[in-house]
Specification:
The protein has helices spanning 58-69, 82-94, 109-123, 147-168, 185-188, 194-214, 241-245, 259-270, and strands at residues 49-53, 73-78, 99-103, 128-131, 177-181, 220-224, 281-282. α1 (58-69) runs parallel beside α2, α1 packs across α8 (259-270) and α4 (147-168) runs parallel beside α6 (194-214). 36% of the residues lie in helices and 11% in strands. It has a seven-stranded parallel β-sheet, with helices on both faces.
Length: 292
């Protein structure tokens, strides 16, 4: 471990042992999240190719399967939960989609670039980029956040977005869409998720700035800021049993959301229904009022 007063002197930090259950297997959750699409498709992404990161489980799985139902072929990037990823692939294929799976760390710029190259080699185009992959490591005190953890969290949550957009940019044409996953913690803060919340603030600023950068090319960039959603992120990401017992109860709706309650926001921002929106953030969060 490096001295805590210094920046980690590596371009890429490997997984850290803070929460050994990360990224977490959705099949082990009880109750199981609801990810299946809730309505018939209408061809809103017919003929398009979409990348969904963190697509093996949780919100990413719900988005990938919904995109497949709406006619897209889907490239799913995930870290290492192969069982979950193969279930997602089967569900997408059952909707009639072609699917590309890619396991690895998107915080590694070489892997991110290679993943995009594989998508182009497979389909020759890229229409939608969903930056959803993320990780969190709760800490009660800021002094408990190691330099490795700090860089790892930023590396996964925001650096990977830069790497993927950089790799995808030459292949994005007029009408393409980028949808980033930020969080309600960006607006409310979270006393135990200091580094995670900071990355979500960076993602929102990145979304707005990238929108300004690309809007002249006809490429729209928006984001979704979910509230507490029942996915592997919290139970496998170090949340205490007490927090999990009351997870989502502090929302006006008094419950956590389900992945298939969030996925339609990602669909709306990816398709022509949102053709006059860019630089915006949607808030499926159980009724919590935020400024932004």
């Amino acid at each position: 471990m490096t001295d805590d007063t210094q920046t980690v002197e590596k371009a890429h930090v490997e997984e850290i042992p803070e929460e050994p259950k990360l990224p977490g297997n959705e099949s082990e959750l009880d109750p199981k999240p609801d990810w299946e699409p809730r309505y018939p498709g209408s061809g809103r992404l017919k003929g398009k190719v979409a990348i969904v990161t963190g697509g093996d489980s949780g919100i990413g799985r719900a988005v990938a399967v919904l995109y497949a139902r709406e006619g897209a072929n889907v490239a799913i990037a995930y870290l290492e939960e192969h069982e979950d990823a193969h279930l997602t692939r089967s569900a997408c294929e059952a909707e009639g989609a072609e699917v590309l799976l890619s396991a690895g760390d998107l915080g590694d710029p070489k892997h991110a670039k290679g993943f995009v190259r594989a998508v182009i080699d497979r389909w020759g185009r890229l229409d939608v980029l969903v930056n959803n992959a993320g990780e969190q490591h709760p800490d009660e005190d800021i002094t408990d956040i190691t330099t490795e953890q700090l860089q790892r969290t930023f590396q996964t949550n925001i650096y990977s977005m830069f790497y993927l957009v950089q790799a995808a940019r030459p292949h994005l044409r007029k009408g393409a869409a980028i949808v980033n996953c930020t969080s309600v913690t960006m607006y409310q803060g979270s006393k135990e998720l200091l580094d995670y919340s900071a990355t979500k603030g960076a993602i929102t600023a990145f979304t707005r700035s990238l929108s300004e950068n690309l809007i002249g090319e006809g490429i729209r960039v928006n984001a979704v800021a979910p509230g507490p959603i029942w996915t592997p992120l919290n139970p496998c990401g170090g949340a205490s049993p007490e927090k999990l017992e009351h997870f989502g109860e502090n929302t006006p709706m008094g419950r956590p959301g389900q992945p298939n309650e969030v996925a339609p926001a990602f669909l709306f921002l990816a398709c022509e229904d949102s053709s006059y929106m860019s630089g915006q953030v949607l808030h499926p969060n159980g009724g919590t009022i935020v400024n932004g």
